[in-house]
Specification:
With about 220 residues, the chain is of the alpha+beta class. It is built from seven helices and four strands. Helix 1 runs parallel beside helix 2, helix 3 runs antiparallel to helix 4 and helix 3 runs parallel beside helix 5. The N and C termini lie far apart (about 45 Å).
Length: about 220
């Protein structure tokens, strides 16, 4: 078995669990629920990952792999002929670029969340939050520009896009990112209903209050 330290609220862990489903490897994953935090690391993960972050994968020979990009590369290597992460050529670099854009959107969203939940009120920076919001808006515009060509097949690129959009819905419900991004919204509605994504949607027993964000447009 492969052991995956994860959290149901982590979009990066969702990339891995959704990818495992696409690759037909979900039944080889033993999921270990974790409590990641940007300051207080989960001690249970530290023996495998000194950063104490999810996702972290422990392979059958005891080797540890992290982060989501490395883990997905490893999982794809176990399935000859898979199309989640093409082996080479232009198709590979297209999905890697999409993954980088989706990861960047997530990084900006998480920085906003951490600013609101962890930093004391007096130390918060409106300029910092605005800068991250601008990154999110630009990323959404870039996804919108190619949404019509994304199709229905799930790659690591489109899984990352879906994980990012789902995270915005989950943690920033006031953002209204669909406004001005109709093609992306249409694609996401179809993609998010596919089993690999529908079965890995984020949820929390008691979610902390979401920081309010202005519309993405």
């Amino acid at each position: 078995m492969l052991t995956l330290y994860h959290s149901t609220t982590s979009p990066f862990a969702r990339k891995v669990t959704a990818s495992a489903r696409v690759l037909g490897l979900a039944n080889r994953l033993e999921l270990i629920a974790s409590t990641p935090h940007p300051v207080d690391r989960d001690a249970a993960i530290l023996p495998a990952n000194p950063l104490g972050k999810v996702p972290t994968l422990v392979t059958e020979d005891g080797s540890a792999l992290y982060d989501s990009r490395v883990i997905v590369e490893y999982l794809a290597s176990l399935v000859p002929g898979q199309t989640l992460l093409p082996a080479g050529g232009a198709a590979r670099f297209t999905v890697l670029r999409q993954q980088a854009l989706g990861d960047g959107l997530l990084d900006a969203a998480l920085l906003i969340r951490y600013e609101a939940l962890i930093r004391p009120d007096a130390a918060r920076s409106a300029g910092w939050v605005d800068g991250q919001q601008q990154k999110i808006a630009s990323a959404l515009d870039a996804i919108e520009a190619e949404a019509g060509s994304l199709g229905g097949a799930l790659t690591i690129g489109t899984i990352t896009y879906a994980a990012a959009l789902g995270f915005l819905d989950f943690r920033f419900p006031t953002l209204d990112w669909r406004n001005g991004h109709a093609a992306t919204a249409e694609w996401f509605a179809i993609a998010d209903a596919l089993p690999a994504l529908a079965e890995t949607r984020p949820f929390a027993v008691s979610a902390a209050p979401a920081p309010a964000l202005a519309s993405a447009r």
